[in-house]
Structure formats: C-alpha cells, structure tokens
Amino acid sequence: MKLILKNIGLLKQAEITLYPLCVIAGENDNGKSTVGKIVFCIIKAINRYKEDLQESKEYQVNEILQEIYFKFRRALPTDDGQIPDVLRQLRAITTGPANLPEQLATVREALEQLEQSGTETRSTRQDIMDALEQIQLITDQPEDTRQSIENAFNKVFASEFDASLLLQGAKTGTIRLYDGDFLLIHLEVNAASGATLKGDVDPINIKDVTFIDSPLILNHHDLLIRSQSMLDVDRKPGRSLGRSYTTLHTKDLFDKLKEPALPNDLFATRNKALLGNIQKLIAGEISYDKSSRDFVFTKNAKSISIKNTASGIKVFGLLQILLANEVISKNTMLILDEPENHLHPKWQLHLARILVELIKEGIYVLVSSHSPYMIEALKRYADRADLKDTSRFYLAENRTIEDRNRLGEIFDVLTEPFETFRQMDAEDLRDE
Predict the structure, then answer these.
(1) Sheet containing 285-289: which strands, arranged edge to edge?
(2) In CA terms, which of 125, 178, 351, 402 is 20 to 30 Å from 261?
(3) What pLDDT digit, counting tens, does each position of 171-226 carry?
(4) What is the phi/psi pair of residue 144, to 5°?
(5) What pTM, to 2 d.p., does this model score?
(6) Cis previous bond, 260, omega within 30
(7) Contact 73, 94 (CB under 8 A)
C-alpha cells in the first residue's frame, strides 16, 4: 500500500509505500511521527466504524429508555413508599448491558401493570407508545456506510491530533491510500469542516495497529486507569467530568496491556520462542498483576513494581505483554516512535532483531528513528532474513518524504555530529 499526504501534521508532502518493514529517519520536527499517527488513525477508523455505529444506536435507544423510565416513575403508584419491582427492572435496563428484546419486553410488562393500576392516563400511554416507535425507527435505520466511516475518521483524528491535523498555516490537506493503482481511501481535510471522504472506501488487510512512543506508559498506571481519549468522551457524553484526557494511541496501548490480566504464564500462546528470547534477554517477565492492579517485573520468583525497573526493561516488557496477549499477530501493525530513546546501543540491536522476527510472522513494523545503531541493525537483520525486497528506509527532510530508499543519505545526516567531532579534533591539533 502507498500512503500520500499533503499538508498533514508536520508534513508538507509525503509518499510512502508501506512495506512490511518501514523505517523513517531524519532530524526532529520533520514529520517522522506524523506518518505513524496517520497510519494508526486510518487502521483504527476503518476497522471500528461498525462498532461506533452500533454504539451510537445503543446510546440513542438508551436515552429514550431513560425517558420511558421517568414517565413510569411518575405514573406508577408506590406501596407504602416501596418501589414496585417493575420499576426496579425498568431502572436496570437503562444501566445494564444492552439487550433490546429484553428491554422492550420489560417496558411492555410495565405498561400492563400501569393499565392494571388504574393510574394510567391517555397521554402517558401515548407518550410511551411513541417512544417505543422511535426506538423501532432507530433500530431499523439502514446503515450509511460511507457517512459512518467518515464520522469514524473525524472522531479518530480528533482523538489523536486534537486540533492540529493540518500543517500549521494550511487551510486544506489530503490523505490518500493506494493498493497498487487502486485508490482505497481519499480524504480531503479542511480547517473548518474536518475530514471529508471522496468516493467509497475499500477494506484494508491490516486488522489492527498498536502505537508505542514511550515505555514509561507502564509507570503511569494510576493516571491512565482513569483517563479517556476524546473518542471515549464522544461515545459517553456527560460521563467525563473530573477525568483526564490522553491521546487515542496511548489509551489504546494501555487497554491492550492491562486486558486480559496475565496469570504469570507468558508461554500459553503460539509466540513461545520469541517470548522465551525476551524473557532470557531481560532475565524475567513483566505482567499486569490483577490483585495489585499494576504492572510488575518478576525475576527469580520475586516481583517488584515496574516503576523500579530500567526503561530498557520496560521496552521489552511492552512487547512481552503484547505478544502474550496476542495483540501483535499476523496482519497487524506495530508502530514504534524513536524506540532507541530508552535503549543502550547494544539493546537497540536486540530490539531490531526481535522486530525482524515479528515481520517474519506476518506483522507489519513501522519505525521512526534517528539512531544509526537502530537503523543499521534493522537493515542488517532484515537482509539476513531475506527481507531486503520488503524493507524500505525513508528520509524525512524539509517536512517532505519521498517514496524511495535513501539509506545512504540517512547515514550522511545521522553521522554529521561525528564530522563535527573530526573538525574539533583538527582544530585542537592546529592549536598544539
């Protein structure tokens, strides 16, 4: 697939073919992270719009059921101040799991009791019948797939980028995704109206995506357990008072790490060999401890809080949990934003080797980096695994990315500091 961006995030222009291994290098503030965030948003929006549509309908139905409950509460007589059982049942259907047939049956039962009580009025009955008819109209409403997908894109972009999806100063931008010459997605982005779909959307073969930009997410359990993204706020309006906000990719990653809780058995999956390699590397395992509701590092049968471990341990611990939970699997994508920031150069090589092993299992990997160690290691391990034709190394410069392999130029940029040192040494020698 090829991604084409114009005036998006920090990028003026970008064309990137999404190979199983994509590496984007370059100096800071040139749009490396923008690519990962856009890819993340595209995959999330395409794979969850049906879920969003269903949740929207359930929310609308629940709002009407609450109004019905209030009408019954005012109309049904109490017995010496005791709440009738049917009223308790009505209250339960507005707070419990959505099961429309059971909810409607409860409403009809309550209506019969209201008729038997003799307190029913014509207007009350008509109001309830009108509400039931409105629920039926909502559930029978045909799906507008294109509009639902467009809404999903706008929700996801707002949750990830807030108000900064467009390049600063730009009024319009475009996002296009191709499979060969076939246009899968075409979005026009406007500063005033948001993202608008141009044409239909075709499915993509990547079923989920996980974005990692910092292993320190494990340290912030207390904050993230109570946090929500703007997408959560949109789904559950009125339930966000006093709660903190975070980006969609952070909330998505945190939820994948803590659910399901791991029972100290990281080897109950098909990823046994790779998990064993990670455990050997860090001499232990990281898991989510359900009893303490926190992440712990277990080594030699002793567990300590994740907050007391090195950042490098956390990096591999993240992968350990995601693999054990089978979040990372065939036809999913893993995006890592400058993972070298928390790793010793030797451990950067270990990470590169593990990432190449993931690619061999059918997992797409997108890495943004400015570490020559990480980039060189990815190149060498990919070549050894016969992945040379399915790897691409891009250079982000002047807020532009060209669709061509630029590995040599990447090293020219990243080794500039060493040229500075060489010049300093030359100056020192002249001064002596």
Answers:
(1) 285-289, 294-299, 302-305
(2) 351
(3) 999 999 999 889 999 999 998 888 999 988 888 889 899 999 888 888 777 666 66
(4) -100, 90
(5) 0.76
(6) yes
(7) no
Select from 338, 334, 379 the least CA-distant residue to 25: 338
Q: DSSP for 234-247, please give it.
A: HHSTT--TT--B--
Our CA angle for 348, 354, 358, nearest 5°, is: 140
Give residue for tokens 């629940």. 62
Taking 70 as the pLDDT cut, the residues of the chain under it are 49-57, 59, 76-84, 95-98, 117-122, 141-144, 163, 222-245, 259-270, 417-418, 421, 425, 427-432
Inter-residue contact 160 to 153 (CB < 8 Å): no
User: Of 171, 119, 156, which Cα lies nearest the Cα of 38?
Assistant: 156
Residues contacting 422, CB < 8 A, separation 6+: none
Do 318 and 215 touch, CB atoms closer than 8 A? yes
291's tokens: 């009893």
Tell me which amino acid residue 382 is. Answer: A
126: Cβ–Cβ under 8 A, 6 or more apart, which residues? none
Which residue type is seen at 330? K
| 76-86: b (≥16 Cβ within 10 Å) or e | beeeeeeebeb
Picking from 317, 305, 373, 379, the residue whose alpha carbon sits closest to that of residue 341 is: 373
| C-alpha span between 288 and 376 (Å, rounded) | 33
Let me know: does 227 contact 247? Beta carbons within 8 Å: no
Assigned token pair, 56: 């929207």
